[in-house]
Amino acid sequence: MGHLKLQAVTKTFGNVEVIRATDLTIEEGEFVVFVGPSGCGKSTMLRMIAGLEEISSGTIAIDGRVVNDIAPVERGIAMVFQSYALYPHMTVFENIAFPLRVAKLAKGEVDQRVRRAAELLKLSDRLEYKPGELSGGQRQRVAIGRAIVREPSVFLFDEPLSNLDAALRSEMRVELSRLHASLGNTMIYVTHDQIEAMTMATKIVVLRAGRVEQVGSPLELFHKPANRFVAGFIGNPTMNFIAAEGISSSAEGATVRLSTGLELKLPVNGSIESGEALELGIRPDDLVLGGADAQIEMTPEVVERLGNQSVVHGITKTDQPLCAVIGGDRPISPGRPTRLGFDVAKAHLFRNDGTALERRVDLQSLVAD
Ligand SMILES: Nc1ncnc2c1ncn2[C@@H]1O[C@H](COP(=O)(O)OP(=O)(O)O)[C@@H](O)[C@H]1O
Ligand SMILES: [Mg+2]
């Protein structure tokens, strides 16, 4: 239970196509995160799966049954919103029990399901409280409890943690991952926050302007982004991009010249033209002070000292912005030029149209335990 298949699904508001033809398969038990900037169509996608929004064309099937014309309550899904949508005059117990009352379940069954959900969500000692007497995190858990008791085959979450402060958000991320591990249901979670996507998802769907940019595991997206958009969106601080020009390509990879003058051979697949406009991508964490084989000169402008590491924002000699994350105990100060190195195997290369040349990275070896 909990298998989803979207085929050529589109959504048009007026004459604006906000979801382009989308094909997507979600396997039973997956934790899928739709991530992308505000307005890219995440909520619309989720609402179409829920049946709260009609689809303009295509089909959505849940567990092999096309649900295009099936009412939300009959789709076997439960949705949790950012605004918890709790009834303020009802107790926690009654809020969680609400969908079961509507479905006219027997009293004993209601009692049992609510108590089981409350236990899972650490709300057992709050059942007689009213929502107004709870913290934001507890209220969000009540909203999740109300979804759990319906025993859906698929959970849908729309930015459920956005109203919480940073500390509570990271706590709730862990709780949601635990919940997923213990329930085993399919979960689809929408967020604009790439950290939520990276930390909770088994599969991430990156959306941009109504189009799926890439689907993959968190590490696939991080190490093998299909294009510049995904590369820049996943990972924090965001990847550095440096203009480059193609020189030649061979079996060993592509040779390019950075705008800083540095010539490098990168281990990527695919051939490039001499003079081709390219961009090199390097993550701030992959830059090191001195050391490694490639050298870029940078003048630091702002140094953010986080203790365990320092985030350095500066510019290259050719005025390109550059960010580096270095050890918190390394010497660095604004205004004093410094040389940064990186391992060419860590670099990404993008064509003018944004597509990535495939890196020769063995993902298996990165995730082996
Ligand atoms: N009911 C609506 N009528 C017209 N346009 C809408 C409606 N709902 C959403 N949109 C538009 O569709 C696009 C996607 O919206 P949405 O799915 O809410 O984005 P996200 O959740 O990724 O921030 C936006 O441009 C938004 O303005
Ligand atoms: Mg939204």
UniProtKB/TrEMBL annotation:
<dbReference type="InterPro" id="IPR013611">
    <property type="entry name" value="Transp-assoc_OB_typ2"/>
</dbReference>
<feature type="domain" description="ABC transporter">
    <location>
        <begin position="4"/>
        <end position="234"/>
    </location>
</feature>
<dbReference type="InterPro" id="IPR047641">
    <property type="entry name" value="ABC_transpr_MalK/UgpC-like"/>
</dbReference>
<dbReference type="InterPro" id="IPR003593">
    <property type="entry name" value="AAA+_ATPase"/>
</dbReference>
<protein>
    <submittedName>
        <fullName>Carbohydrate ABC transporter ATP-binding protein, CUT1 family</fullName>
    </submittedName>
</protein>
<dbReference type="GO" id="GO:0055052">
    <property type="term" value="C:ATP-binding cassette (ABC) transporter complex, substrate-binding subunit-containing"/>
</dbReference>
<dbReference type="Pfam" id="PF08402">
    <property type="entry name" value="TOBE_2"/>
</dbReference>
<keyword id="KW-0813">Transport</keyword>
<dbReference type="InterPro" id="IPR017871">
    <property type="entry name" value="ABC_transporter-like_CS"/>
</dbReference>
<dbReference type="InterPro" id="IPR003439">
    <property type="entry name" value="ABC_transporter-like_ATP-bd"/>
</dbReference>
<dbReference type="Pfam" id="PF00005">
    <property type="entry name" value="ABC_tran"/>
</dbReference>
<dbReference type="GO" id="GO:0005524">
    <property type="term" value="F:ATP binding"/>
</dbReference>
<comment type="similarity">
    <text>Belongs to the ABC transporter superfamily.</text>
</comment>
<dbReference type="GO" id="GO:1990060">
    <property type="term" value="C:maltose transport complex"/>
</dbReference>
<dbReference type="InterPro" id="IPR015855">
    <property type="entry name" value="ABC_transpr_MalK-like"/>
</dbReference>
<dbReference type="GO" id="GO:0015423">
    <property type="term" value="F:ABC-type maltose transporter activity"/>
</dbReference>
<keyword id="KW-0067">ATP-binding</keyword>
<keyword id="KW-0547">Nucleotide-binding</keyword>
<dbReference type="InterPro" id="IPR008995">
    <property type="entry name" value="Mo/tungstate-bd_C_term_dom"/>
</dbReference>
<dbReference type="InterPro" id="IPR012340">
    <property type="entry name" value="NA-bd_OB-fold"/>
</dbReference>
<dbReference type="InterPro" id="IPR027417">
    <property type="entry name" value="P-loop_NTPase"/>
</dbReference>
<dbReference type="GO" id="GO:0016887">
    <property type="term" value="F:ATP hydrolysis activity"/>
</dbReference>
